[in-house]
Amino acid sequence: MVNGFKSAGEYNVEFNASSLASGIYLYRLQAGSFVETKKLVLMK
User: Fold this and answer.
1) How far is the C-alpha of 7 from the C-alpha of 36, rounded, in Å?
2) Which residues contact 16 (CB under 8 A, 6 or more apart)?
3) pTM value?
4) Under a CB-based contact definition with an 8 Å cutoff, are residues 38 and 29 in contact?
5) Following DSSP, what letter does each residue of 8-26 receive, concatenated?
6) How far is the C-alpha of 42 from the C-alpha of 44, rounded, in Å?
7) What are the Cα distances from residue 27, in Å, to 2, 13, 24, 38?
8) C-alpha to C-alpha distance for 31 and 19, rounded to whole angstroms
9) What's the rounded Cα separation, in Å, for the pair 31 and 25?
10) Which domain holds residue 31?
11) Number of domains, the chain
């Protein structure tokens, strides 16, 4: 999705999963010392 650093603010990211298979994917949000891993379920 996004790999890099952003300054403080709100951002929208368009996620195109057309080339991915159905399944469970994990993604990680990191901001300073805050890190959270979430699950994304993709069903086609």
Assistant:
1) 18
2) none
3) 0.68
4) yes
5) SS--------TTSPSEEEE
6) 7
7) 10, 13, 10, 5
8) 28
9) 20
10) 1-44
11) 1
Please provide the size of the chain in residues: 44
Q: Which residues contact 44 (CB under 8 A, 6 or more apart)?
A: 21, 22
Instruction: Name the token pair of 35.
Output: 């890190």
Two structure tokens written together for 22:
């159905």
Q: What is the pLDDT of residues 1-44, one digit of tens each?
A: 778 888 889 999 898 999 999 999 999 988 889 999 999 999 99
CA-nearest of 42, 43, 32, 34 to 1 is 42
Extract the tokens encoding 6. 């952003």
